[in-house]
Amino acid sequence: DCPGKEGTGGRKRNLTLLRNKLYMVQRRRTEPVVESTTTAGDHGSLRRSQSDRTEYGQKLQEKMAPQEVSSMPATPPQEGEEEVSRRMMARRVKIIAELIQTEKDYISDLDLCIKEVIQPLRNKQIARFDVDGLFSNIELVHQLSAKLLSLLEEATTDVEPSMQIIGEVFLQIKGPLEDTYKIYCYHHDDAHTMLEYYEKDEELKQHLRDCVQSLK
Description:
Blueprint: H1 8-64, H2 77-124, H3 131-135, H4 138-156, H5 167-186, H6 188-198, H7 202-215
GO cellular component, one term: cytoplasm
Domain DH: 91-216
GO molecular function: guanyl-nucleotide exchange factor activity
């Protein structure tokens, strides 16, 4: 700063330039450091993650590996295969049981729908209410589901799990299933449109409410 050659404005400009230069120098010094630190940190955490996974994999293999006893021969490999087969069979049994229970629940819901909704609406003989159009062939769906459940129970009751042949049941009923649900699905959109129309009519809507209330 040279007093006498510059006024106050000149000194301010010099200070501003000096600050900018110092800022740029400091930025050039710190940016590579920050970048390299961040990169090193990312790689460090990645290496730790891979190390943890490797250690976990080794421990898991040690736990699953057959334990050798000095007084007895090593566990034969076929025992490991038998254990895998046993677990798969247990899982298969659970899946089949869930399949049968799901079919039972579905039939129970269909029973309620037919007894508490369809039949009461038919008995009322409402001129503007097309019960068969609204519910399509749901009663045939109920009959077919009951047949499927009967075949599943027949294939599993008093039958060893390894002898339960479930695939044959579905192959046996495949044709009727396709024919029945083809009709139901074909009329589904029309039934939905019909229901929307009935819900706009207060009198018809009240009949539906009564059915829903009886279901509850």
